[in-house]
Specification:
Radius of gyration: 24 Å
Strand order of the largest sheet: 3-2-1-4-5-6
Number of helices: 11
Distance between the termini: 62 Å
Largest sheet: 6 strands, mixed
Number of strands: 8
Mean pLDDT: 89
Order of helices and strands: EEEHEHEHHEHHHHHEEHH
Shape: globular
Length: 267
C-alpha cells in the first residue's frame, strides 16, 4: 500500500510518499499545468491513499483522483495545523506532517461530495432560483401588466417542471433518497437535496448533530442556571433548511398525528 501526504498549492504540490511494503520514502515536487501530476499518480500501483489539506484550489485535484480511482482524503486545515507543534512551516514539512497523520490514523478527514453530488447540487440550486423568480412574479402581479406577467409565469412554470422531471429521473438511482419519500411531506426534490447536501448520515453522531449542521436549532445565550433560547441559528445550508421547513408544513397538512402535535405545541 502507498500512502501519500500532498501539500497542494495553486501552481505546484509537494508530496511525501511511503511504500508500506518496502518502507521506501519518496519526496518530490510536481508542477501543475503539466502532465506531471497525472503521470505520477497514474504510475502508482496497488492501493493508494492520498491526504491533502482543504483549500480553494483542490477541485481539479479531487476530480483527477476520482478519475484515477485513488482514495483522496481531505483534512480540516485548523486541526492539521494544531497537530504540528513546531513553528517552522514549509512545503516539505507540511507534506511529511500529512503523511504522519495518515500513518498514525489521526488524519482529520472532512466529508467531501462526489462529482455526481456536486452536479446534483447545481441542478437543485438552479431549480430553487427559478422558484424564487416565480414567487416574485406572483407577489408583483398587477392588473395593468396581467398579460405580460401571465406569459412570464407560464415560462417559469415550464422550466420548473422540466427540472422537476430531471429530479424524478435521477432519484430512481438513489435508494437513500427513495427511502425519504416514504416520509409524509417529503417529495423528490427534498429527498434528493437531503442526500446530496448531507451525504452519508452515519458521519453524524445523532439527530441533534444533523439539525445543528443544517441550522435548525435555536440560538442559545445561557449563563449559570438560566437558559435563554432565541430564533433558529440558520447556520449551514439555507436551501436544505428551506426545503425541510416546506416539507414540514406539507407533512402537518397530510398527517393527522403531526397536526395534533403541533397544535399542542402552539397552545
Amino acid at each position: 500500500m502507498k500512502i501519500v501526504g500532498c501539500d497542494l498549492h495553486a501552481r505546484q504540490q509537494s508530496i511525501a510518499l511511503l511504500d508500506t511494503e518496502t518502507g521506501e520514502l519518496v519526496e518530490r515536487s510536481l508542477e501543475h499545468g503539466t502532465e506531471q501530476p497525472r503521470g505520477f499518480y497514474s504510475s502508482l500501483s496497488g492501493p493508494v491513499v492520498v491526504g491533502i489539506e482543504a483549500s480553494g484550489a483542490m477541485q481539479w485535484f479531487l476530480q483527477l483522483m476520482e478519475e484515477l480511482e485513488i482514495e483522496c482524503r481531505v483534512g480540516h486545515p485548523a486541526k492539521i495545523r494544531a497537530a504540528e507543534a513546531r513553528k517552522q512551516k514549509h512545503d516539505r514539512r507540511d507534506a511529511l506532517l500529512l503523511l504522519q497523520l495518515l500513518l498514525e490514523k489521526r488524519f482529520p478527514t472532512i466529508w467531501m461530495p462526489t462529482t455526481e453530488q456536486r452536479d446534483l447540487r447545481t441542478l437543485l440550486r438552479d431549480r430553487h432560483q427559478w422558484v424564487r423568480m416565480r414567487t416574485r412574479v406572483q407577489s408583483t402581479y398587477t392588473a395593468q401588466r396581467r398579460n405580460e406577467l401571465q406569459r412570464l409565469y407560464a415560462q417559469l412554470q415550464k422550466r420548473i417542471e422540466e427540472l422537476n422531471q430531471q429530479a424524478d429521473k435521477v432519484i430512481v438511482g438513489h435508494p437513500q433518497a427513495q427511502r425519504l419519500l416514504t416520509h409524509p411531506g417529503a417529495g423528490p426534490v427534498t429527498a434528493l437535496a437531503t442526500e446530496v447536501f448531507l451525504g452519508d448520515p452515519r458521519r453524524f453522531e445523532n439527530g441533534k448533530a444533523v439539525a445543528s449542521y443544517i441550522g435548525m436549532i435555536p440560538c442559545e445565550d445561557s449563563s449559570g442556571p438560566q437558559q435563554r433560547f432565541g430564533q433558529l441559528s440558520k447556520q449551514g445550508n439555507a436551501l436544505l433548511r428551506y426545503l425541510w421547513c416546506e416539507a414540514a408544513m406539507h407533512a402537518v397538512s397530510k398527517d393527522g398525528d403531526l397536526k395534533r402535535f403541533y397544535r399542542r405545541k402552539l397552545v
